[in-house]
Amino acid sequence: MSARRINQALALIGAASLFSNVHAEKLDVRDAIKEALASNPQVLSEMREVDARDREVRQALAGYYPTVDLVAAYGFQEIDPAVSRDPFTGEILNSGPNGRTRNELERGEVQLSMRQLVFDGYKTDYEYKNQQARFKSARHRTKSVAEDVSLQVVRVYLEVLKREAILDIAQEALAFHEDVYNRMKKRHESGAGSKADLDQISGRLALARTNVVTSTTNLVDARSNFQRVVGRFPNEGELVMPGTYRKYLPEGVGTAVERAIVNHPLLDSANADIEAVSHSYEQSKSSFYPSFHIEAQRDINNNINGTEGQVDDLQVMLRMRYNLFNGHADTARKQQFAHLVEKAKEIRNNAHRAVEEETRLAWAAHESLNMQMPALEAHVTNSLATREAYTQQFDLGRRTLLDLLNTENEYIDARIAHQLAWHDVLYHEYRIFHAMGDLMYMVGAKL
Q1: pLDDT (tens digit, 9 = 90+) per residue, 203-258?
Q2: For the chain, what percentages of helix, strand and coil (3-state, to nearest 5) are there?
Q3: Most buried among 168, 304, 312, 335, using CB within 10 Å?
Q4: 443, 150 in Cβ contact below 8 A?
Q5: Model confidence over 43-85: pLDDT tens digits?
Q6: Residue 239 bridge partners (DSSP)
Q7: Is residue 315 exposed (0-12), middle (13-18) or buried (19+ Cβ within 10 Å)?
Q8: Residue 275 CA from chain centroid, whole number
Q9: In order of start, what are the domains of the chain with their CATH numbers?
């Protein structure tokens, strides 16, 4: 692969950076999380849901207030009554064509009515409590989504840093192979080196160039994922290695699980859903009670029913309504919500299991990687020492080119494995805090 192809691949990173905002300062993981929470569609969608639920609470509160209605009408009324006779003589009393008279009047109506709840079997009370619980559930769900997005930010943030580190390793490996190639080419041209050695280093050099292109593409992909989650491309060298919060981790997995069960917003949301549907169940019982309302109505009518003049009417009533039979619909509705309460409890139980599982998995992954780190660090140190020794021995003619190239590959693989594990240790550390519902709190981010 030519140097021109490598330069084209490296240019992909620069092209991606052209679309990013120019920031003079570094962007740490906390600020990246804050940027994501301020613009991420998932979070904003849940926040709008919270706002909508808040308005539903206000709607339920309106049930305690009176309703006041004003009705007004004005128009024309024409009455053509049947023939009326004197009951004693039989004489036609009304006059006009065919024994009829036509009454034409301009009619006007004004009605002001008020209806105030007195008692409705606690229906309004439980509706208000239901909407409050639904509002609380939406808030906890928004917090849960924000925690998920925060972990996504950590993942893509560390992925960019990981791919940058691997690209640096690949470029160093390429420089090493280019140096060896130039030395072997000079040896071959002077007659001191074999054609086989030159062919071998040529193949390894081509592979090193391919690795640079692959690493560059992986970095571009990582930055694209960063843009999808955070909302913009990271600039060259803008991201910094996050700090560790290892000292704030619980003492053991059992403590972590206990913390997750009492603190995770997903479980808080599920518990609020149980509360909401329980209030709906209690509300369904209101149909078995009578309802009482105070109803007041004032009517001012003019020229109605063919009678010229104004007619006023005032009513103030305590009105009871009591359904005696409606085909057992109320009983069925009560049973429906009883089943929904049990469904909500099972959803909560499933969330409980999922939260505990995620906490245990995150803890196990973190512990496993921590146990691997000393061996990986030793592998890097030993392979570096081996490479340096083999390089000296190769220069003295005591090692073959294949020995030198193999030790270089082992050193590269050791460094890559160490970088992958180190970044994964950090990720799973943040993952544990996410599993406990404490990630945003730990990094100092708020909605």
Answers
A1: 999 999 999 999 999 999 999 999 999 999 998 889 999 989 999 999 999 999 99
A2: 70, 15, 20
A3: 304
A4: yes
A5: 999 999 999 999 999 999 999 999 999 999 999 888 766 555 5
A6: 27
A7: exposed
A8: 22
A9: 3-67+120-289+326-443 (1.20.1600.10)
